[in-house]
Amino acid sequence: MLTFFWILLPIFSIFVVGFISQKILHFDIPNLSKMSIYVLSPFLAFKTFYSYQISVDYLYYFGYIYLLCFALVLLVSIAAKIFHYDEQTRCGMILGSCFMNNGNYGTPVVLAFFGAAGFDLAIIMLVLQQVVMNTVGTYYAAKGSSRKIIGSSVRHALYQVLKMPTAHGALLGVLFQLLHIPLSESLYRSISMVGDASIVVIMVILGMQLANIRITKIAYGKLSINLTIKMLLSPLIAFFLVEWLPIDHASKQILILLAAMPAAANTTLLAVHFDTKPELVSSATLISTLMSLMTLPIVLLFLGVELPA
């Protein structure tokens, strides 16, 4: 357990930087979130799909991550129906339950326990998760927004999905790779620098948003549903899904481990950007991140992965 804590300490340190800076300097978080979503993330998506060799396994990973997401959306929707939550609350709970933090949290954990080969898969899943969040996540963030435009909320939500550039960056990276379009070393380095910066910026912004949480305003009943779905049911569903995938055993372990990660930091950015229950979403991110210090070692032991000495 102590070894696991030291692995995660650098990650939590970046959250703390954002938390302290927001308490002292009071940044404009919505505009910073917009910068991360519209400027930095597309470069990371392009770099990943341009750099890593495309194979049929991508289809398996893509199908898996969408199936997992929609299974979790279904569970949240059933809970919202049972407890008579309104549409904005349901959408906020989806943002806080259905997307895992397999980027700035999952990738260093996978690297620590599975090495370089596992890290390559974690990076691929990072970008696929970005695509899911910027399609499905954006849809529900816009659908539950308190700032809806006049007209159909579904039409407005779909329009917001089309505006999200991360999926465009990923598609462009695929096309450049398949068409063998070369990039100069200096241009590729510039793209990499901007893309890699997105991970740290997202972590800092998450820390800033956590600084704005009012503990007295946390909806503990809704939050408990979020945490149960994200931290318990998500890895269980992943366990059954990967049994159907024709991939190696280590890859299956990694997919289950990533499904057990806490709520994604990017969902806080979407919640802030669209004003879709940002306190509920950021609370789910904070508490699930803290819980992961206890739950992830259990998942690793269940998978038969030993903690490093």
From TrEMBL:
It is a multi-pass membrane protein. InterPro entries: Mem_transp_PIN-like (IPR004776), Na+/solute_symporter_sf (IPR038770). It is found in: Cell membrane. It comes from the Bacteria. GO terms for cellular component: plasma membrane. Keywords: Cell membrane, Membrane, Transmembrane, Transmembrane helix, Transport. The keyword Membrane applies. The keyword Transmembrane applies. This is AEC family transporter. It comes from Ignatzschineria indica.
